[in-house]
Amino acid sequence: MASITAGTIFQDTRTPLPVWFRAMWWVTAQKNGASALGLQRILGLKSYETAWTWLHKFRRAMVRPGRELLGGRVEVDECYIGAPEEELRGRGGADKALVVVAVEENGSSVGRIRFGKIPDASSTSLNRFLQESVAPGSVVHTDGWKGYAKVSALGFEHEVTVLKGKTETASELLPHVHLVISLLRRWLMGTHQGAVSHKHLGYYLDEFTFRFNRRKSMNRGKLFYRLAQQSVAVEPVTLDEITHPGAKQVKKLPTKKPPSKESVVGFVVKQAGQI
Fold first, then answer.
1. Domain coordinates of the chain in residue numbers?
2. What are phi and psi of 117, to 5 degrees?
3. Between β-strands 97-106 and 109-118, what pairing exists: parallel, antiparallel or unpaired?
4. pLDDT (tens digit, 9 = 90+) per residue, 53-72?
5. 260, 234, 223, 209: which is closest to 60 by C-alpha?
6. Cα 59 to Cα 191: distance, rounded to the nearest angstrom
7. N or C: where does the chain have the smaller number of CB atoms within 10 Å of the terminal CB?
8. What span, in angstroms and rounded, lies between the C-alpha atoms of 93 and 205?
């Protein structure tokens, strides 16, 4: 008989599930994010590697498969993670991670957000991100970078603000997206002391998105429940796959059909109630 945790992030764990749920509760209860050292200390784990691995498994569950696209009016811009922008020229930066950011405008405030780690600022990379993140028919507001030249052809209404020659700064002309970029950098430096490798950056962006999009929730229990739901909706990942993303992995074929996701969700909720 297949294990109830097969096909979830808890697959093959030797740690009792209530310990996982205590970790999950602590992670969702931290307003400014969780560090591996903090998780190791709060659970009394002997190994830092265990805490680090658990956090990365949780981060992979923070993006819900099939989540709704952004809509309405959306500001889009890119930023570099790894060094102050004034040290860069143009859209280049050999050792910096390029991230594209999309932010829903909600009047004068910020709505939902999306991030994408992209290899370059070409129209191919930017258009792919927009199609995966923004609903057709939305207003996409960008600067005058040539990589956005074909946005209208994707089914969006494209609004362009050319920054060159303006007395206002980019932060003033595209305030929503630059506010989010500023908060992201502050979070990376504050919670993680900037010690985020580029190969894992995408999952830290997922964590920031998960927290930011639920920042107004007053019920930590709902965040815990959401993460528990999504933990059984994503594929399991091994430590080797986490530490070597993109490398070819040998997949073991399952010997038996795993239990349905519905039964796993019920089991997770039942176990969580025993914490």
1. 17-61+218-272, 73-196
2. -85, 120
3. antiparallel
4. 999 999 999 988 788 999 99
5. 234
6. 15
7. N
8. 19
Tokens of 3: 């294990």
Domain 73-196 has CATH 3.30.420.10: yes
Q: Taking Cα atoms as reference points, which of 149, 151, 138 lies closest to residue 112?
A: 138
Nearest to 176 by CA among 73, 54, 245: 73
Q: State the first-to-last Cα distance of the chain, in angstroms, to the nearest integer.
A: 26
Q: Which residues contact 137 (CB under 8 A, 6 or more apart)?
A: 71, 155, 156, 157
Q: Which residues pair with 101 in a beta bridge?
A: 77, 115
**pTM, rounded to two decimals:** 0.82
Backbone angles phi, psi at 189, to 5 degrees: -75, -35
The DSSP letter of residue 134 is B
